[in-house]
From TrEMBL:
Residue span of region Disordered: 207-234
Keyword Transmembrane helix: yes
Protein's recorded name: Endonuclease/exonuclease/phosphatase (EEP) superfamily protein YafD
Endonuclease/exonuclease/phosphatase domain mapped to chain residues: 99-314
Species of the source: Saccharothrix violaceirubra
Molecular functions per Gene Ontology: endonuclease activity; exonuclease activity
Amino acid sequence: MNRRRVGSWALGAAAGLFVVFGGVRLLGIDGGQHLLALTSLTPYVLIVGIVLGVIALVVRKWVVAAVTLLLSAVLVGAVVPRAFADGAERVDGREVRIMSANLMVGKAVAEDVVRVVASQDVDILTMQELTPAMVKDFERAGLDRFLPYRVFLDEPGGSGSGIASRHPLTRKDLTGPSTMRQAGAVVDLPGTDVEILSVHPLPPVVGDSAEHWQRDMDGLPRRDSARRDSARRDSAGPIRILAGDFNATLDHAGLRRLLDSGYVDAADRTGHGLTPTWPADGSWLPPVTIDHVLADDRCQVLDYAVFDIADTDHRAIVSRLVVPSAPGRPTP
């Protein structure tokens, strides 16, 4: 077999794999752990597909070029808009700053977290992998000076979580059965109440964890369920905000279904949807965007930013939202 034939075969095989991947992504199939991991790399695979298409054009493999470039164009339409801000209608209500931080089994530097809370004037902080030792670190770092109210479900290891708030809050279970403890609360904001959830489905890339991840994702509260459960016919239910480490990108069907129920992704809405959040510790792995703030679609997303925290593999995320006031409750 001559070199040209080998090259032609390799190009065709690579293009075939790209077509299979693209089809699975567009059909919304999350699959098992390997497919879930590969799906998170969709922006990188898209670049590979474009390169394959260009090579096919150069070597005059017209069918391969047409198929790969056409599929690449479709995937561009799904991925590239995340880098551009969407226009949003103005909402009358209260401005709220939401922060989320994965603490890497309690190893994160508490002072760094508190520094971001203070500098960004954060109103609500959701935490994942909150341990009892980390709670003590936060006490020493003075987190309660900025966020005195809290719902902490701290646990040794990586299953704990918590919410700290500038405003009074009451614990409320907002998820179905889940592998990790995902703290939920109702925050009494001036002008309205907001349901907030610290999200942390099980990472889907170890052992048989993919099915647990899917169950955890399915257990997250849908916005459309809030509308159905509302006691008042003229009400759309409580405002909900989900913030945390979803272990999912916007290319995973499970996360897109959640968004379709009535949420908007704060990073996507502000043109930061391709800004990676993990890994942030110098790992060789390609960085991906798995930490999110999902805001109720009745909220206005003003901006979004990421921040480095020492000794954790996740970047913290902060989003500034406008939450609409409840009827009959004027915003101060």
